[in-house]
Design the sequence.
């Protein structure tokens, strides 16, 4: 496939910043004998943060940016001065971006709203200076905490376009023509299969100032869920749509069979997609007379709202929009979080300090440093790494 501006899959290596070391400095002044410990705390390392941007629709900007590293926190200084925090790295991504661990395939997080920020990798905490460890029995502690180490992880970013309605059909079913007729989108339209090589989005105006988003998914063929054709690459985008609009042309040899094939491919890719609201549109209906339409109506699948349309003549388009609007705003779709890839689990929490959604496991930050002198001296003290000057 030729190079395209639409990129929906990238792999990048991310690394947060490590925390700065705490200082083990002692106060020195001419008229202050035994000034005591005054080593400051180290700064935290920079976070790796994902931020949703509704004005972006592709991961193209990350295609050649394969390494994204935050900066380290600085060490603490004398006089209980804090080290500077490392700079965060904010990665702007389109709404609908899902992140997986590149090595294990584990789901990490997703961005589903504009301006939503998710901490992908937390920066290391800065170490405490030696003044924290002064006690009545140990007034001159000569140790301080090193900073928490950085976190490095290779991740895969997948974009799944967000849309209220997703068009599902075989090549040349008239999906692109319908999208261009209902919205201002200008997809490529031709009379050969697989004209559409990348998903297209269009905003469909409805009555008054209402509107909804329609996504044209490249044509699916039988066996797409097994990797045939282009369908496997783009089937993931169907997961993000509240309503699936199946399109079968009126000149099909067997409309019911074609619909069942499309539904089966969607179900094989993800069984949960079969539970989404479905509408069937018989396209190219301008070639039918009343008698043929009545005959075709007898062959249509049961239990699926169906409408005969023609994007060329405008036949049935108002009825189709009314039907789609009712399905989009049905109780089931309003109650469901249709844009969420999967439920949030314990790996997702809201950080109490800054209200970020945090993508790492809580356990990673628990007990990260020893709390007693014995633990510190026996296991964690490394004079060369942790000393920040005590002259």
Sequence:
């Amino acid at each position: 496939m030729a190079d395209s501006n639409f990129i929906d899959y990238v792999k990048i290596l991310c690394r947060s910043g490590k925390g700065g070391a705490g200082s083990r400095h002692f106060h020195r002044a001419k008229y202050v004998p035994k000034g005591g410990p005054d080593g400051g705390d180290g700064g935290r390392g920079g976070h790796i943060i994902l931020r949703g941007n509704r004005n972006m629709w592709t991961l193209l900007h990350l295609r050649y940016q394969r390494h994204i590293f935050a900066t380290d926190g600085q060490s603490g200084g004398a006089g209980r001065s804090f080290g500077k925090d490392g700079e965060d790295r904010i990665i702007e991504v389109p709404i609908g971006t899902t992140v997986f661990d590149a090595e294990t395939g584990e789901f990490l997080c997703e961005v589903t709203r504009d301006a939503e920020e998710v901490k992908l990798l937390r920066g290391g905490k800065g170490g405490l200076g030696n003044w924290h460890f002064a006690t009545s029995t140990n007034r001159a502690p000569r140790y301080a905490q090193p900073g928490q180490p950085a976190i490095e992880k290779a991740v895969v970013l997948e974009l799944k376009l967000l849309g209220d309605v997703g068009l599902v059909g075989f090549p040349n079913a008239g999906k692109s023509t319908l999208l261009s007729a209902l919205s201002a989108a200008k997809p490529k339209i031709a009379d050969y299969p697989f004209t559409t090589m990348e998903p297209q989005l269009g905003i469909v105006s409805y009555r008054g100032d209402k509107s909804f988003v329609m996504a044209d998914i490249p044509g699916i063929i039988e066996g797409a869920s097994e990797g045939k054709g282009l369908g496997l690459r783009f089937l993931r985008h169907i997961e993000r749509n509240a309503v699936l609009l199946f399109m079968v042309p009126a000149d099909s040899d067997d409309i019911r069979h074609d619909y069942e094939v499309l539904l089966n491919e969607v179900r094989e890719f993800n069984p949960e997609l079969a539970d989404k609201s479905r509408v069937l549109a018989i396209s190219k209906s301008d070639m039918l007379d009343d008698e043929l339409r009545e005959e075709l109506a007898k062959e249509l699948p049961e239990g699926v709202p169906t409408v005969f349309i023609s994007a060329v003549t405008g036949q049935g388009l108002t009825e189709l929009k009314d039907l789609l609007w009712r399905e989009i705003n049905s109780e089931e779709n309003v109650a469901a979080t249709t844009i969420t890839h999967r439920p949030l689990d314990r790996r997702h929490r809201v950080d109490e300090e800054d209200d970020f959604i945090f993508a790492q496991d809580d356990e990673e930050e628990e007990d990260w440093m020893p709390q007693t002198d014995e633990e510190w001296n026996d296991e964690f003290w490394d004079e060369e790494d942790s000393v920040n000057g005590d002259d």
